[in-house]
Amino acid sequence: MITQYELLYIIPATLTDEDVGGVENVVKALLEKHGATIDTSERLGKFRFAYPIKSVRHGHYVLVRFSSEGSAIAAIEEALRITKEVLRHIILRADEAGGDKFEMIQFVEVNLDARESGDRPRRRTEGEKPKASEEIKSAVAVLEGTKEDAAAKPAAAPAAPELSAEELEKKIDAALEEKA
Predict the structure, then answer these.
(1) What is the pLDDT of residue 152?
(2) Tens digit of pLDDT for each residue in 5-16?
(3) Mutual angle of helices 17-33 and 73-81, in 10-degree steps
(4) pLDDT for the residue 161
(5) Domains parsed from the chain with CATH numbers
(6) Is the distance from CB of 8 to CB of 62 less than 8 angstroms?
(7) Global confidence as pTM
(8) Cα 118–Cα 124–Cα 129 angle in degrees, nearest 5
């Protein structure tokens, strides 16, 4: 029985527009090879990912509506999975996909630590607490008592305060928990 399907796939933005067109043709040929009839194909645009995929941060999204036998979908899925130019893909039956209206929204990072401005970027500013790795290095230098480790720190970094062994252990534990 022939059923309507939608295929949404992502092509890395590291490719040029001509290369993206070539990948689209490869995917169309792959679908036709497995007996699918392509109804429409449209580029939805280039969008930023919420997280890197194979060290790529942006991708071109392409939506293809096609008709095919249900038995051919597994073969199409497998062929798309091993196609290296396709980062991610999903195939849904058209009735499950939600109709003709399809809207893409650009990813926007939400910073929960934002102060009054509400849109502060995630960058370390002066006066912020040092990173856990810096605290660990400072604690190790104090424990070892070597001046060369303390001298190797940047000049802007404050000197490590004199701490008791118990306080030092607490700081190291806190730094390790923060890093994890």
Answers:
(1) 53
(2) 999 999 999 998
(3) 150
(4) 62
(5) 2-97 (3.30.70.60), 132-179 (no CATH)
(6) yes
(7) 0.57
(8) 105
Q: How far apart are CA 114 and CA 97, in angstroms?
A: 36
Determine contact, residues 3/70, Cβ cutoff 8 Å: yes
State the DSSP string of 60-119.
EEEEEEEEEEGGGHHHHHHHHHT-TT--EEEEEEHHHHTSS-----------TT--TTS-
pLDDT in tens, 91-124: 999 888 776 666 666 666 666 655 555 555 556 5
Query: What is the H or E stretch that residue 32 is in?
Result: helix 17-33
Helix (H, G, I), strand (E, B) or coil at 26: helix
Q: Answer whether 43's CB lies under 8 Å from 113's CB.
A: no
pLDDT band at 29 (very low <50, low <70, confident <90, very high): very high
